[in-house]
């Protein structure tokens, strides 16, 4: 057979090479079968699975993502289980064997001082004392208050003595209860963390129970309220026993204690309304008592608005010791608290009326006392309180304009507390002179410290890092630094290296101007003049008035630990209320960061804006 050679010649294909591959394969297989196998080859083909020289087939475990030798897998699992049992056994031993836990970190100095500051209120209680009062040298006292006055003839037992005497001044007492309640509303979690919540609520209730006795709290309309129990004026001479002429333990008082009522006292009535309204928020979980407080607050605020007048007419006992300069600030302050307690917009309308703010002194920027928060001037506190409303609820029209004004004025007040603005002088030791160098400066300093610390917490809760003083921006830490500086001064960081809170620190006043603390509790009754020897002695008081903040140093950082000089050594209810509020606001609880309670104060306020109506139902043809 010939084919064409691509190179030009003939191509010859041999027939011998034309056999197919299959033919060749069959020939090879046939040859292999015909070949004789040797013994080794035969053993390979005939041997069984167990006859291959003792070799064993390995076993594996398929874990899905990887194949592992079974023996290694079993060893690994066994090791892990063994370690688990061993570790569990060790942990069980550690738990069962008794061991000492590390003590919790000690509370900061502000918390330590707070525990003591609250005890001052226990020492100031009047009436039948509870068994757990905790002040061993105090007992039941003035158990006939009100009943022995022929013009009143009802029980006015209870309440708190104002200072180192045994007078019950309702004006500063009510303000003190408002301040304590405000501090609980804002810092309830802090009080609970340090174990003082039940204590301070008990102290507040002791005060509000008494306030409810001082007017007809079951009526919707009243025409009189009690202003004070006891008398302190000794300017007229004579030897008529009263609470200032005599130096006696309250438990031994046997002289008459007249009751002073007022029929036109807007300032006192509005402050008492504020106290009951604020306390109603503290006790909102006890509906019956909270409602009772609100009912009384409504009657008082209504009375104050209708019967205009100051509670302290010229020449009266009230004017001598706790004179009220105006009642307009109480209208704003009381109206704000009434709004928070009831949610009734009519109270907010009063508190934010432009004319009300003007009369209260909101625009008296040149006044030397502008921004000084006291038991007499509540406007700075009311401005902070209403700034809170704007920061968190922003009620809008028609309140926005005056709320914005109050907010801006609060910023200005905070600026005035800073030394660089020279609004107020400071002593060389660092104490702010909010009363311009006059005696008893500490009560004003603690109130300012509270407002500064609280306002800084408001700003932080509103995600605002600070505020402006003119073109300059200051962080909230600047306010806290100011608050801490004032409290540090009071607690011992001052030129005299002494604490002005009795019982706190190693060096503190030993001779506070206080009748009960200065007379021994030895079973001997000392009459009206019998206690003079204890008043005039240079010895330290036999009873420690724990937690009492004295009036404080002079403008040169000097202090005289003299019992008869009350301008240095007398503590008061109102001053300690401000101290408690300032301490809880600045305290650093080690168990966590506690800010303000943003919502509780607004619990009675209905939604600011109506709920949108539900969407219409689906259209059906």
TrEMBL record:
Q: What class of enzyme is it?
A: hydrolase
Which InterPro entries does the record match to this protein?
6-hairpin_glycosidase_sf (IPR008928), 6hp_glycosidase-like_sf (IPR012341), Glyco_hydro_9 (IPR001701), Glyco_hydro_9_Asp/Glu_AS (IPR033126), Glyco_hydro_9_His_AS (IPR018221)
Show the coiled coil region(s): none
Q: Which domain of life is it from?
A: Eukaryota
Which sites are catalytic?
513, 561, 570
The Glycoside hydrolase family domain covers 110-583
A GO biological process held by the record: cellulose catabolic process
Substrates-to-products reaction catalysed: Endohydrolysis of (1->4)-beta-D-glucosidic linkages in cellulose, lichenin and cereal beta-D-glucans
Q: Which residues cross the membrane?
A: 72-94
List the EC numbers from the record. 3.2.1.4
Listed GO MF terms: cellulase activity
**Keyword annotations from UniProtKB, A to Z:** Carbohydrate metabolism, Cellulose degradation, Glycosidase, Hydrolase, Membrane, Polysaccharide degradation, Transmembrane, Transmembrane helix
Q: Where is this region: Disordered?
A: 1-23
The family assignment reads: Belongs to the glycosyl hydrolase 9 (cellulase E) family.
Q: What is this protein called?
A: Endoglucanase
Q: What is the lineage of its organism?
A: Eukaryota, Viridiplantae, Streptophyta, Embryophyta, Tracheophyta
């Amino acid at each position: 057979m010939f084919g064409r050679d691509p190179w030009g010649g003939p191509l010859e294909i041999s027939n011998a090479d034309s056999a197919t591959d299959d033919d060749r394969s069959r020939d090879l297989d046939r040859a292999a079968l015909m070949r004789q196998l040797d013994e080794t080859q035969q053993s390979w083909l005939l041997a069984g699975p167990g006859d291959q020289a003792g070799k064993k087939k390995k076993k594996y475990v398929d874990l899905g993502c990887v194949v592992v030798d079974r023996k290694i897998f079993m060893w690994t699992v066994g090791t892990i289980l063994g370690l688990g049992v061993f570790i569990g056994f060790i942990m069980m031993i550690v738990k069962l064997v008794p061991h000492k836990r590390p003590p919790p970190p000690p509370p900061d100095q502000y918390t330590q001082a707070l525990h003591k500051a609250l005890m001052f209120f226990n020492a100031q209680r009047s009436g039948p004392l509870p068994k757990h009062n905790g002040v061993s040298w105090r007992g039941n006292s003035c158990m006939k208050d009100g009943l022995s006055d022929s013009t009143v003839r009802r029980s006015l037992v209870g309440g708190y003595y104002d200072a180192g005497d045994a007078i019950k001044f309702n004006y500063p007492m009510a303000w003190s209860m408002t301040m304590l309640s405000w501090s609980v509303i804002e810092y309830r979690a802090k009080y609970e963390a340090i174990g003082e919540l039940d204590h301070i609520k008990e102290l507040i209730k002791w005060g509000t129970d008494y306030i409810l006795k001082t007017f007809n709290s079951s009526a919707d309309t009243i025409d009189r309220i009690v202003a004070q129990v006891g008398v302190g004026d000794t300017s007229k001479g004579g030897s008529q026993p009263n609470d200032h002429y005599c130096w006696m333990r309250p438990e031994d008082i046997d002289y008459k204690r007249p009751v002073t009522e007022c029929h036109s006292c807007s300032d006192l009535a509005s402050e008492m309304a504020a106290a009951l309204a604020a306390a109603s928020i503290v006790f909102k979980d006890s509906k019956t008592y909270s409602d009772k407080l609100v009912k009384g607050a409504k009657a008082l605020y209504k009375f104050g608005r209708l019967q205009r007048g100051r509670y302290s007419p010229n020449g009266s006992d009230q004017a001598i010791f706790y004179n009220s300069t105006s009642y307009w600030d109480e209208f704003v302050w009381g109206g704000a608290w009434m709004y928070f307690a009831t949610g009734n917009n009519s109270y907010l309308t009063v508190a934010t009326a432009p004319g009300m703010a003007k009369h209260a002194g909101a625009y008296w920027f040149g006044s030397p006392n502008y921004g000084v928060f006291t038991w007499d001037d509540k406007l700075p506190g009311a401005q902070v309180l209403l700034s809170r409303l704007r920061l968190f609820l922003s009620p809008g029209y028609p309140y926005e304009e005056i709320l914005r004004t109050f907010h801006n004025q609060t910023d200005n007040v905070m600026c005035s507390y800073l030394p660089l603005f020279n609004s107020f002088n400071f002593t060389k030791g660092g104490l702010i002179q909010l009363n311009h160098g006059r005696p008893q400066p500490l009560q004003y300093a603690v109130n300012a410290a509270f407002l500064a610390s609280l306002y800084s917490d408001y700003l932080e809760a509103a995600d605002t890092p600070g505020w402006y003083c003119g073109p300059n921006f200051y962080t909230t830490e600047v306010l806290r630094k100011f608050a801490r500086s004032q409290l540090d001064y009071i607690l011992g960081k001052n030129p005299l290296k002494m604490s002005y809170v009795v019982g706190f620190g190693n060096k503190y006043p030993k001779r506070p101007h206080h009748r009960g603390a200065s007379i021994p509790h030895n079973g001997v009754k000392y009459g009206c003049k019998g206690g003079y020897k204890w008043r005039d002695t240079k010895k330290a008081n036999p009873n420690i008035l724990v937690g009492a903040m004295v009036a404080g140093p002079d403008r040169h950082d000097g202090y005289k630990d003299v019992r008869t000089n009350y301008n240095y050594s007398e503590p008061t209810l109102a001053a300690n209320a401000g101290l408690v509020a300032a301490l809880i606001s600045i305290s650093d609880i080690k168990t966590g960061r506690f800010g303000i309670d943003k919502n509780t104060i607004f619990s009675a306020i209905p939604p600011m804006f109506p709920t949108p109506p539900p969407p219409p139902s689906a259209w059906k043809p």
